[in-house]
Structures are given as structure tokens and as C-alpha cells.
Amino acid sequence: MTAVSLGPLALPITPLLLLISVLVGLLVAALVGRKYKVSVTDPLLTILLGSLLFGRLVFVARFADSYDSFWQMLDIRDRGFDTTATLLAALLIASWLLWRRRQQRQALLAGVLTVTMLFGAFSSVIYVGRQQAALPAISFQQLNGDSVNLAELGAGQLTVVNLWATWCPPCRREMPVLQQAEQDYPDVRFVLLNQREHPETVQQYLQQAGLDFQHLLLDRQGLLATQLGAHGLPVTLYFDPAGQLIQSHMGELSSASLAQSLQQLGVTSE
Q1: Which of 46, 72, 150, 159 pairs with 22 at a CA distance of 20 to 30 A?
Q2: 7-13, Cβ contacts within 8 angstroms, sequence gap of 24 or more
Q3: β-strand partners of 10
Q4: First CA to last CA distance, the chain
Q5: Would you indicate the residue range of the signal peptide (predicted)?
């Protein structure tokens, strides 16, 4: 599962679980703080926001060549954060606050531990769930009418499957990123899997946008999204050469966030 559906909205699962963990952590800290007659809401938020800011800055510095402008660097819709830098910053800020604010130490420690353990548990569940997901042996139609088996197409090669539609603004914005990625990462197979649209609609959009992909398939019934619980668009799924789902990203991709994901999987551009 990559997202949770709330009526017409589809929310990315990882940020949502982080938010839940933080809210529970604030609640626990408030209960403990009531016992000692202190409040630790501000310190906990300082840890969260400070670590995320540092993680974003490190991410932007690492992938500065992937950005065309300063404003793109400020656009966090791609959720580009350096995980190691974020965790290190959180540890340092938390340690400093625990040292400086002795009266708040018990409540602050309770909140930090609650967030850490709860989000860790959520992440473990997500990881286990991914182990059960694989590239399905489903045949999809190409624009020329031929059918292609998705499992056979991705066999033996790292495969990135992008679920998209022409009516989806973030999908359209990330199309040039994926087209360039086909050229930059020849060892990766990119599959653009259109969701529930007529071939003529897709063909017309590609011509107007000047886009051309090696592997563009049509999922007229949304079979893959239903099978893998990929709610909302766009969704990008990463499968290893054995067809196992190893990573997912719900929401818009940037060149930087795509490069980060591929680096984590041991792939670099030529």
C-alpha cells in the first residue's frame, strides 16, 4: 500500500504515519509534562522541523545539479530529504534540548521515544508488506495494439513502473523527468503505465507534449493499482530484477528525488 484513501483524497502513507507518530508523541509528552507541570510541545516541534529542514538542505546540496532554479529547491512536493542527515539532526537537537532543559527532560524524552518507536513500528509493517508485493504477470496493451506481459518485461532488470493519467497535473509535470531518465539510466527499465484512459486520449497527449517512451502501456481497468493498493496518482514503483517491490513513491517526482531513489538501489546515471 502506497497511500490511504479518505473519500476523494489519497494521502501518501509514510508522511501520514509520521504525522500520526508525532501527534501521539505530543500527546504522551503532554501527559507526562502535566505530572511535572511543564510543556514540551515547542521543543518537540523544534526537533521535527529542525531535522527536516537540515535533511532538505543536505538533499538539495547533494542533488543541486538536478534543479533548474532556486524555486525548485524550495518545492518540497517531491519529498526530497536526506534520511541520514535528517536522523542525525534529530539526534543532535534532541540531545542538546535534553541537556539544556532539565525540568522538561522526562516529558521530552517520553515524547521523543514515543515518536521514534511508533514510526519505527509503522515502517517495519510497511517493509513487511512490500515483501509480499511483486511485479504481476498481467498483460497490458501498447498504443499500437500489441500486448506485453509486465512480469516478462521487467524480468532480470531493475524496473520502474510509473502510474499516471493525462488529467493529472503532477503526472504531466513529471513526464519530462521520466523521459530524461530513460536516457540517463539505460540499465533501468522504465514503464509508463497509463491508468483507465482510452488509447486515443493518451496518444493525443503524448503528441501535444512532444513525449516519447520506450515502454508505454495501458491499464484500462486499473488492475495493477488495485492489486498493489496504489491509490492516487502519480505513483512510482521500483521492482528489483527478481520482480520484488523494493520501494515506492506516491506523488510527484523530481529529477533529484528520482536520482536519490535510484542511488539508494545502487544505480547511477551515465
Answers
A1: 72
A2: 9/232, 10/231, 10/232, 10/233, 10/250, 11/232, 12/79, 12/232, 12/250, 12/251, 13/126, 13/250
A3: 5
A4: 32
A5: none
Nine cell digits for residue 201: 486520449
Identify whether the C-beta of residue 216 lies closer than 8 Å to the C-beta of residue 192. yes
Give per-residue pLDDT as tens, 184-213: 999 999 999 999 999 999 999 999 999 999
Pick from 19, 233, 243: nearest CA to 133: 243
User: What pTM value is reported for the model?
Assistant: 0.89
Predicted local confidence at residue 3, as pLDDT: 60
In whole numbers, what is the pLDDT of the chain averaged over residues? 91
Are 224 and 163 a contacting pair, CB within 8 Å? yes
Closest by CA to 134, choosing from 235, 228, 250, 230, is 228
Residues 6+ apart with CB under 8 A from 130: 244, 245, 246, 247, 248
Joined together, the cell numbers standing for residue 268 give 547511477
- Spatial separation of the C-alpha atoms in residues 122 and 143, rounded to whole Å: 40
Could you give the CA distance from residue 253 to residue 229 in angstroms, rounded to a whole number? 19
Reduced to 3 states (helix: H, G, I; strand: E, B; else coil), residue 267 is: coil
Question: Using CA atoms, how far apart are residues 59 and 81, in angstroms rounded to an integer?
Answer: 5
Domains of the chain: residue spans and CATH? 9-131 (no CATH), 139-264 (3.40.30.10)
